[in-house]
Amino acid sequence: MEFDRRLSAVEGPYTAETHSPAPPQVPRDQDLGSVLRKEFVSSITNALCVTLYNETRAEFEATIRSLLVSMRHCERQSAPSRSLCALCILIDGRLELDPGIARLLGSCGLLNAEAILLGNDIDLYITEHTSEALLRGLNGEELLPASLSGERLHVLVCLKHRNRGKLQSHLVFFDTLCRLLQPKYCFQVDSGTTVAPDSIAKVVEEMESGPDIAALALRVMPPVPGLRDGFLSGWQYLDFALQKLILWPFEVAMGHLSVIPGQACALRWGALQSRNADPLKGYLRGVDAATPFDKVMFLAEDRVIGNEIKLAQGHQWRLEYAAEVSAVTDSCRSFGELFRQRRRWRNSSIACRLWLLRQWPAYLSRSDRDSASKRQFSVAMSAQLMLIARELLVPAQLAAVLAVVVAALSATGHVLRTLLLGAVAADCLLSVLVLMVPWMQASPGSASIRALLRGITAALLIGSLVASVPLGAASLLLLAPAITLIARSSLLPKARLIALASMHFFLVSELLMLTLLSFYSFWNLHDVSWGTKGLTRTEGDRRLLRQMKSWRNRIVAGWFLANSLGVAVAIGCKGLLFPQLNPVIEVSSILDIVIVGAALWHLTQRSRWLLARASRRAKSDTVNAL
Predict the structure, then answer these.
(1) Whole-number Cα distances in Å, 34 to 45, 166, 170, 171, 598
(2) Residue-level pLDDT at 379
(3) For the whole model, what pTM was predicted?
(4) 347 lies in a domain?
(5) For residue 305, is it within any domain?
(6) Which of 168, 205, 409, 507 sits most deeply, having the most CB atoms within 10 A of its CB?
């Protein structure tokens, strides 16, 4: 076949001259709507979007395999009318596509069809399968006809001739395919993310039980770190755990979840477009973002779409977080990649929150919202202000904690100070040796010694604070970090709990890492490149770049001034509640305790609701069986 002949030319990496498969020769006057109506004779319940750029075959195959297993599980758990799926694979650039993925798609029969031309630079392939048949294809077994077993699975592969960004891929998925398919639910999954076997079934059940839920965020975590994985993977795991177990539940409890993660989430199609409102239009305006603020804000497209849904006219939708629905995503493999990724996340999250806060006055004057919803929105915006202050004033918090730690150490005995400084010095020396001697990175002995030293350091530091600071002040300082550590460790298997000791989790190192990330992020505020996957260059004319650098300079100056004032207060003023502390650490600790308390309350309430729902379902199943 034509595609098989093209595949024979892509044994090595693509080059623009010889290794790019030629676009198929198809008529340009085909009507996509009529084709899709002919192909999709039944209504689609779930439309799944998998975005793909330059990921490896192993990453892509793991994602597709997990989705197929989850779809098959959903078929077996649900009524047939609730299990119809369309899998949309959007490839963002012909030249960047891994040749192994091209061969995989061809061998599974996903590209062996005549293409329909979308616009001038996108080819669409439509094929029909079952999840069971495609799983056999991924395993290298003989493909079965789609009619033999299972519900039909329609697969749409959109091959973009050149990279135009993730948001443009969402433009194709939502604004073209979903408007024609009219699915009930839309799923977004990044290539490299794997979902649990029961994820799709749980999401459908959640959306069915809550008709006012517009979007559902899944609990996306990086792989569980082991003792030998080191600081980078351990820090990322604990940072993700903080978001998923504390910050996101806090936001939901306060009334607005600020992010619908593109790594793995589900959206109700009816909430994205309706007669009265079209949040999708506001979301997709980022394709043509031109101002510096919009450029930064739309780096977090998964935050914009939630804001647009929240502000939609007419129906008051709810954004929910399902902590019990899990997915695993890939993590950054180097500090450079981590810093560029967090630069994009931090800058865009603050921009999105500021944009939402600017809508606050207009929301309070709207006639389609009652007084209760306006009060709830005000509570949610107050919580967003709290989180913005928490992110912006991290350097001041670090200075405030260091001031308390230094004062505590100076008041402790000579032996305790010597032990603490010796443990810190030994840990630093061993870390340097590990970086200089590669074989020590894989040595179980060096990993165990590092974990032991870091555990001793944390214990001595906390012990010195408790010994030299009054119990009330120490409790205020350590309560929130201790609770968050317990919550984060709950996600780790018992066999991996010892890995916590090697993750540098104590308050000083946590704030130091966040301070470094904050400085890097704000200093590179003008950089609107994706930052990862090799996309490290900012596209745009020189005039826009000058505007963004000037805007960056003003923001950095204001951020530096605010933190300088915070440092001055932390060093020069005694605490309002405890003289041994300072106002900055008191305020930040109280805010952290409020955040942690609200998050735990929400998780407790949701656990009770899930148990009640499971009990009702069990009674219903028993009645039906009788």
Answers:
(1) 20, 27, 22, 20, 51
(2) 95
(3) 0.85
(4) no
(5) yes
(6) 507
